[in-house]
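Tokens as discussed.
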């Protein structure tokens, strides 16, 4: 007895005809009929009643059907477990816009590594749209991106909120702006500005916040990490979610800091996303659980 024989009987039972079952199983009708016939001879029971209008279970087939279903369910569970075991040994591919790397992502990766030493984690820096496209195509298992509060999540991606913060002016610690509790918008507009390139959320955020006004853009960069380095070098200021600055080595060493704008905008969120069409492997679900748990501890980094 072979599993394929049981799957053939189940397909005919489900679809009601040999023709539809053969199409679903990608096999010819004579081959399907022979496969089921061999099983019937082995069991000594006629499983199907064949008619011109279709095929249906015989009385003997109905008696044996619960056992067939039970075997197929067990095989499915075994295959799923084997697939999870195989997946747990490969690398997890995580797309990130490099937000909250130090306070959230790195501690979680350390814990995950301790629990799953055989699983490699590959961090891939990309823009939001590229991360989401790779999630849809299977090139990434998990994506960490920024969104503006109120954005509609893509219906084909599951979205989990991790951190909620506010946009803040990132400046050098010795800048006159650092002596302010909040930065007036006019002061911000007068500073040389290190802007994120199109495709990054903070590019869209700045245009929405300023509503047609233009900051004194001096540089365009790809991502928050380069923006913070340029701020540290005294080349200007930038606007980032506060959780992207909290705990950064440049902030911890006293080189950069951040201050909120007097004119507050909507919250900025760090979310995790994965495809809705694929059940996330066990190790991806575990990584996501660790991210959610640690995010609850981190909270708002600069809350009053």
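Sequence:
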């Amino acid at each position: 007895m072979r599993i394929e024989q049981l799957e053939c009987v189940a397909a005919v039972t489900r679809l009601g005809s040999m023709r539809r079952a053969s199409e679903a199983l990608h096999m010819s009708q004579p081959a399907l009929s022979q496969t089921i016939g061999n099983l019937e001879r082995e069991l000594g029971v006629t499983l199907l009643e064949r008619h011109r209008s279709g095929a249906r279970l015989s009385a003997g087939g109905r008696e044996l059907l619960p056992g067939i279903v039970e075997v197929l369910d067990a095989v499915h569970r075994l295959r799923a477990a084997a697939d999870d075991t195989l997946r747990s040994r490969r690398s997890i591919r995580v797309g990130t816009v490099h937000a909250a790397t130090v306070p959230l992502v790195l501690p979680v990766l350390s814990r995950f590594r301790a629990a799953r030493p055989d699983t490699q984690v590959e961090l891939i820096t990309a823009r939001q749209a590229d991360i989401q496209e790779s999630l849809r195509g299977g090139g990434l298992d998990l994506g960490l991106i920024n969104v503006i509060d109120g954005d509609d999540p893509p219906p084909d991606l599951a979205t989990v909120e991790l951190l909620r913060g506010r946009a803040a002016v990132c400046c050098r610690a010795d800048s006159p702006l650092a002596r302010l509790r909040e930065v007036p918008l006019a002061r911000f507009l007068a500073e040389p500005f290190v802007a994120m390139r199109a495709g990054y959320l903070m590019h869209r955020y700045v245009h929405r916040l300023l509503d047609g006004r233009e900051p004194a853009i001096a540089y365009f960069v790809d991502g928050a990490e380069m923006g913070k380095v340029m701020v540290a070098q005294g080349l200007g200021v930038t606007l980032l979610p506060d959780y992207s600055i909290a705990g950064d080595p440049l902030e911890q060493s006293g080189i950069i800091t951040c201050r909120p704008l007097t004119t507050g905008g909507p919250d900025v969120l760090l979310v995790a996303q994965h495809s809705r069409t694929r059940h996330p492997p066990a190790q991806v679900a575990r990584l996501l659980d660790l991210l959610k748990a640690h995010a609850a501890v981190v909270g708002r980094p600069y809350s009053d």
